[in-house]
Write a structure and sequence with these properties.
single chain; about 100 residues; alpha+beta; globular
Amino acid sequence: MSEGAERGVVCEAIRRRRLLFLSYGGHARIVEPYVHGRTSAGIEVLLCFQREGSTSSGYRSHWRALHLGRIEHADMLGVHFPFTRPEFAGRAAAGMT
């Protein structure tokens, strides 16, 4: 899938508040997508909360800023997440444009 297609899936999942299944860095992850934007360094990222899956760091349930260009595959799941995590407000503004 191309980066443009991944961007479309990510943005639609944010709009619809649906979980995403991602392949990123060779790891399968299920995330709550919150914000798509650019860092102050100009890197296009997805700010998300990882619910399930593996990581290279070992932290499973954790906030992530994933580089959009490194997402190998993205599928929007049929599962809705109806709430915003309390710690989201501070993370949304940190380093995003």
